[in-house]
Amino acid sequence: MPDKKNVERVKKLIEKRKLAQKKKGVEGKKDLIQKILSDIDDIPPFSQIATKALKLINNPKSSAVDIGRVISYDQALTAKVLRMANSAYYGFPKEVTTVGEAIVILGYDTLKSIVLALSMRKFYDHPVKGYGLQKGELWRHSVACALTAKFIGNHVNYSNPEEPFVAGLLHDVGKLILSEYVKDEYEKIMNMVTLRNVTFLDAEKAILGFDHQEMGVRVSEKWNFPDKIIEAIGFHHQPTGAEIDPLLTSIVHIADFICLSLGIGIGADGMLYALEGKALEIAGISSTEIDGLISESLEVTIEIDSILS
Ligand SMILES: [Fe+2]
Ligand SMILES: [Fe+2]
User: Fold this and answer.
1) pLDDT digit string (tens) for 93-128?
2) For 179, which of 6, 128, 219, 309 could close a Cys bridge (C-beta 3.0–4.6 Å)?
3) Distance between CA 96 and CA 70 in Å, rounded?
4) Residue 26: pLDDT above 50?
5) Which residue has the higher pLDDT, 286 or 182?
6) Residue 34, class by beta-carbon neighbours within 10 Å (0-12 exposed, 13-18 middle, 19+ buried)?
């Protein structure tokens, strides 16, 4: 369960950001988010298995037996986990036939993240029309960002490498919700991006009155995501606004930038994506290191393909 006080803090920070934006003259109509929020009961519940996996990830006392139980509830998930354990990436010489063996090979922590990613696939696996992304592209972008964030987390010795994975996986969840509502406004947003050379995010705010980060915060609060994750969702494009865990949000921001640089899930959001130098500072990554990180992240695509196959 998210800490209510922290969620309120995230919302206040978002209000602060909106005020700053207003001063810059980028604001738009305010009634649309209210309309979406009033329809929020129609927004699908977050996948039950993903909710269970998320709970296990956040519970330090959870065990391999618990995750085995979650996987065994779902035959398709069991098949995918076994296929992954048998993939060339892990190079295990003998065929892996049980979930118990898969836990040993993949590692308990990795498996928790994989279960979360796989169980979210159905949820993400439709075209995100408003953002010009093909079917599955947002999911592919989210998985790439999750794996890259985990990799960066390890690189900077982040305390729990699974948290960057989860935050990376969920960072653009607001797009899923908004894609149902921005279809008509999309053209207006694109015109603004091309004719006035503003970022996609500023165009979203100007046309909609808010952006996919804010929508992500609203919906992830409803889905009871952990507060650090809610903050990372709310600030992944402007990580310096984060206060609860600026390092986690910066890791997700850098991972998002890397994935877009590699062309994974470009869509309309990839235009004019600005890497905040302060995020590198927070993560303790030098600007020369970033090129190395981008090329090392390419290896991540191997892992993505084994998840996607
Ligand atoms: Fe985003
Ligand atoms: Fe993204």
Assistant:
1) 888 888 888 888 887 777 777 777 776 776 676 666
2) 128
3) 18
4) no
5) 286
6) exposed
Q: Delimit the domains of the chain by residue range.
A: 4-42+126-308, 46-124
More confident residue, 51 or 286: 286
Ligand 2 centroid to 218 CA: how many Å?
17
Ligand nearest to the CA of 237: 1
Q: Which ligand is nearest to the CA of 258?
A: 2
171 C-alpha to ligand 1 centroid (Å): 6
Residue recorded with tokens 């391999």: 64
Query: What is the CA(29)–ligand 1 centre distance, in A?
Result: 21
CA 238 to ligand 2 centroid distance, Å? 12
- d(CA 142, ligand 2 centre) in Å: 7
- Average pLDDT on 286-294 reads 86
**Which amino acid would we find at residue 269?**
D
Distance between Cα 200 and ligand 1 center (Å): 10
Neighbours of ion ligand 2 (CB under 5 A): 172, 256
Closest ligand by atom to 216 CA = 1
Name the CATH superfamily housing domain 4-42+126-308.
Answer: Hypothetical protein af1432 (1.10.3210.10)
